[in-house]
Amino acid sequence: MKHLPKHLRPRWRYLAVGIETWPDADLGRRAFQRALWYAAGNLIGDAGSADADLTLLSFMHGDGTGEAVVKVRHGHVAEARAAIACVSEVDGDPVGIHVRGISGTVRACEERYMRRAGANSTQRDVAFGDAERPAVVREDACDVWVGSGYVGAAAFDIE
Amino acid sequence: MYEAVHAHPDGDATVARHAATAARYGYDGVVVRTRDALAPAGEGGESERGGADDGPPAAAALREEYGVDVVDAVEIDVADATSASGAVGNYRSERTVVCLAGGDDGLNRFAVEDPRVDVLARPMDGPGDVNHVLAKAARDNAVHVEFDLGPLLRSSGGRRVRALADLRKLREIVTYYDAPHVVSANARSHLALRAPRELVAAAEAVGFDPEWVRDGLRAWGAIAARNRERRSEAFIEPGVRRGRYEEER
To answer: Can you tell me the ipTM of this complex?
Structure first.
């Protein structure tokens, strides 16, 4: 179809979203998109979701951390931010989610807020509480396996 | 702005991890509601409880490490007002912030009528309810009523609808009588923490005034600052401080 004249094209804002999960979680792009739209549908309704759009443009996840670019219609960023805050789990895996910043172009969004190079994580035993426990260490963060699940610790706790 | 969190062993993340995440999200401080997670500030930090659980890191060291304020608090969760009274008396002298988990008419009533309590946490939980009498008492005793945004962020369906209806009712009563309030997401792990802008946006979507929510987040810091001043050596009573001219007799 012919391109719309410039003044009729929808204007977009691109939200850089940081994602954090436990290290054993495996998030897929489709699952995350579905969770995002569900959260929007439940919070701001079908009408609000249609306004906000919330399409996922890029998605990356691995080793308990990830990032995404979300397309939002200009003027509906507040609703989109609210919907993003309400994404508490994806396929049963709890997620921590945080809007790092907003840009007017995808390129600016990626250059400014995306870290691309995935953080290196290593698996080793750490002293936590009163025992040596297996843990996944990534920069300052350290997720310690305590038998029934992970406990989020930091380098500060295991020194 | 401050956020009040549940830390390990009550939650799934340690105080340090909460502090690191809160610093990244732009908070000025975290209030640690879990008694066992952090040594009380007044008692010389780690020397107080070295053995159990590898000695919870002292608040001052965390402040140094992550650049956010870490406040030692306690959330008293008891069955009835009689035991609550004893617990409040015990913890008031050693903790900077004292919260009392409500959710029961008797407990809500007790909390708002006791000026030693700083925060009445989750008053609408379970069978609990709040009315004009409690709101007036909360205002007179400067007990902050907590607005728990946890269900807004983490639950869905009927549970969330009921929680939001309760929040709205509470908001109408509390704002009418101008009782002090605090806002929190009641995070049990660093994954449940949300940045202040996200919290404000989510609350705005369900009818809260954004500036009012920000006030609620700042109130945690104000409570901590006020109580620290009261516990400092120079403080004698409200309006009276030990000055520079005090002489030894």
So the answer is: 0.92
